[in-house]
Recover the amino acids of this structure.
């Protein structure tokens, strides 16, 4: 396939490609800026086919990613929020020798050359040959999974992965020449990068924000500037909460694509009143973004579901229990072609050609998928499978509880039992008995945590904010038992 | 990829799949009807992996094609208008043993079993396993090219060809859940079949018409029933001419996708006044429909152009003359994987991996493609390349001329010279001198036909109505010279 950026210049040179902090570039202008950067990079880069980048959502960072892609380099997208030791692990694993970094990054990284953006944009232009074609089988990006259960894995994403991801999304959400998609999620994550790739494939405007500025984004939406936004649950809530009572979004604004967890009823109701469709979705770095999505009209009748597999995607739930809960497995042309240096782990993820997501779930009679938790989080208690998520969701309704995490601890009689670690809201607390009583009202007996502990340290979290239960289990002091 | 029809039942069971003569079927209903037909077919079909079908645009014909596809058979789509000897050639070439035919077909075909639809729909149900997956590399349909230059060739189209065709079209025209596409072009041609395949891939309503009933179709468009229609030039003209003066189409109606030749200025102006975009396009059976298209906003500034290559398609003009005219060559994932039994011809169509379309054309400075004619039609006269189309277009402006075709005849001095065969309008004629004088006003000297002949027989045409110039040259009596 022809290089997507040059193809866009051929097809829609005047159409807006990106808007950032008041600047607006057409595809022609973006292409020219990127080509110039590629020429400057050529005078700075060594021969390593992999180049890492450390950037927030800035126009220059955006252009740098595209410039590396134009040069045919594999872009290793580093999470800007990681600690230097975490970054060092990834750089070493990916055998990277040079890191392009936004000027505001001040940490020192060992064994690599760090190239601030300002040094690149000041460099002389070297002659380069840009990649004329994008081979769908070629790995163009590598991202490390946040790793709720171990060492990060470098996920290799091909042009074909990104292409089919964009196609699957368009077949689900539709497509129009005047679409404009807000990228306020990080472009170093698949959620943000997939918006960039869609922009090239669709000829679509991206509205890039360095920070999730809820007031500014709401103002831009209300002003009719965009059609679509990718959000995680907290962003969705913030946008809707900040909307003045009785205000609605304009009809141009069609879709809030929600990843990273389900939405709650109150938020979905607010979205409906505001006149925008919330598309809850499920996907991962390994599938180059969403592969399962819920039609907004099903949001209330199918509350809690992540929906159905997109057109190019196949889904099955394998190894089902008698209640129909099993492993979520998929086939998809968006599926990564490998974990860098961990092909054994990659191959071990497959069963009969199906990729095992590591998530557990079930499908209802009409095929809608519901997730119940990660495989590793499942607690096997007296022959019953207990999923922390379900228990947490119930307790999260208590106003005294700020956050709760449920883990399994071994038990002589039951094999394992659920216990809860709780962070109370400022000045609040509950007794053991009150917690047990509440659980028994809403949960099967075996799902009610046997013991409750007060959080004594910070929550151990991944870079993307998810609680790492396996660390909680190992490291958290479980002595502060609630009586 | 999962079977597209069953996938549609999973994703959008209630959405309308097809409307025909007042009947409306959802994807669930269509799937049930198709599955029943497949079970009935199973009790009638032999083991031949290829099955031919002879049908006009009827609901039963539509369902039969899908049923054969569900059974994993390769569907040989026969042109209903062909003579029995022409059909016999294709049946023999494709090694077909059974032909499903609409009941109104009354001709006898040798060496095959003819199965009228009514016999199939009355057959008992047999157990069958429907194809669970559509392998993108699998040949699912075969269509014979109309052959302006020789024996028809069986074009093998894979699921992948149809998938990428639908994707390329969506990336160009956009996509919406409420799209509805008129299929009044034959479903045995790629123009019609590609609408059927898009319907499965997009989850889109097809509005099927057995005949091009201009009044009914215009009424349905005005009534807001559809968003898109595929047309050839005469259909486009008829629709716009029948529209009451001052009337406009509703905003829901977005696109008239024009194939089979360019439009004229008057028609484009009418379309603009009627408020609908005309997307002129270029494609062929070998590319599973359109691969090049002209944005409606470019229709007037780029008059005469067929546009630019769709997103998944690459285009080049090779072996250019000094004026930039050359062979139109393409790369496309929609490109046929072979000509049945004529792989030598197929392979001979490629140059450095580019498929040679057999058309001649040029690109302007902004990359828009203009076609000047078929390679075989080009006349090499005194070192100049002369294209019949250009000359015909000029003479076609004369009100006395009903139709004109220009061919080359050998000439001792110039190598070859253009001559014209003319069909005058009833009671009209022009002298040799008048024709020469008119030509000299509008054309370079060497392009003005040396001699003019009155048409003495019928025009030799392909099944799709194109004049076969090579037969004109060989067979037409060129004695009735205009003096």
């Amino acid at each position: 396939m022809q290089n997507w950026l040059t193809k866009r210049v051929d097809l829609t040179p005047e159409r807006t490609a990106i808007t950032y902090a008041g600047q607006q570039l057409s595809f022609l202008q973006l292409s020219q800026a990127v080509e110039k950067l590629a020429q400057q990079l050529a005078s700075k880069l060594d021969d390593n086919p992999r180049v890492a980048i450390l950037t927030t959502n800035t126009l220059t960072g955006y252009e740098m990613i595209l410039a590396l892609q134009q040069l045919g380099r594999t872009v290793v997208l580093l999470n800007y929020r990681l600690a230097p030791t975490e970054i060092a692990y990834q750089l070493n694993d990916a055998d990277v020798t040079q890191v392009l970094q936004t000027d505001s990054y001040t940490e020192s990284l060992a064994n690599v050359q760090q190239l601030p953006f300002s040094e690149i944009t000041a460099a002389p232009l070297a002659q380069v040959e840009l990649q004329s074609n994008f081979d769908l089988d070629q790995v163009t990006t590598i991202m490390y999974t946040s790793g709720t259960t171990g060492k990060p894995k470098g996920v290799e994403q091909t042009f074909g992965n990104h292409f089919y991801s964009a196609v699957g999304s368009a077949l689900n959400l539709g497509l129009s020449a005047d679409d404009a998609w807000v990228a306020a999620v990080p472009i170093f994550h698949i959620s943000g990068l997939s918006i960039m790739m869609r922009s090239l494939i669709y000829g679509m405007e991206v509205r890039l924000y360095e920070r999730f500025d809820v007031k500014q984004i709401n103002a831009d939406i209300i002003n009719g500037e965009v059609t679509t936004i990718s959000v995680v649950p907290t962003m969705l809530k913030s946008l809707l909460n900040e909307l003045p009572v009785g205000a609605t979004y304009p009809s141009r604004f069609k879709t809030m694509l929600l990843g990273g967890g389900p939405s709650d009823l109150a938020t979905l109701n607010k979205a409906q009143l505001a006149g925008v469709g919330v598309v809850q979705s499920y996907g991962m770095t390994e599938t180059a973004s969403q592969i399962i999505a819920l039609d907004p009209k099903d949001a209330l009748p199918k509350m809690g579901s992540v929906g159905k597999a997109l057109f190019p995607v196949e889904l099955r739930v394998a190894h089902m229990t008698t209640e129909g809960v099993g492993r979520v497995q998929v086939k998809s042309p968006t599926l990564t072609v490998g974990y860098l240096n961990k092909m054994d782990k990659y191959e071990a993820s497959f069963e009969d050609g199906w990729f095992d997501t590591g998530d557990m779930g079930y499908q209802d009679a009409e095929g809608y998928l519901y997730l119940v938790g990660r495989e590793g989080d499942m607690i096997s208690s007296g022959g019953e499978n207990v999923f922390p998520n379900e228990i947490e969701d119930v307790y999260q309704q208590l106003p005294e509880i700020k956050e709760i995490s449920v883990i399994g601890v071994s038990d002589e009689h039951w094999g394992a039992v659920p216990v809860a670690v709780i962070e109370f809201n400022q000045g609040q607390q509950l007794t053991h008995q009150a917690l047990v009583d509440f659980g028994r009202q809403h949960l099967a007996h075996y799902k009610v945590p046997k013991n409750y502990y007060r959080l004594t340290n910070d929550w151990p979290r991944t870079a993307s904010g998810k609680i790492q239960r396996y660390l909680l289990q190992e490291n958290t002091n479980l002595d502060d038992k609630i009586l």
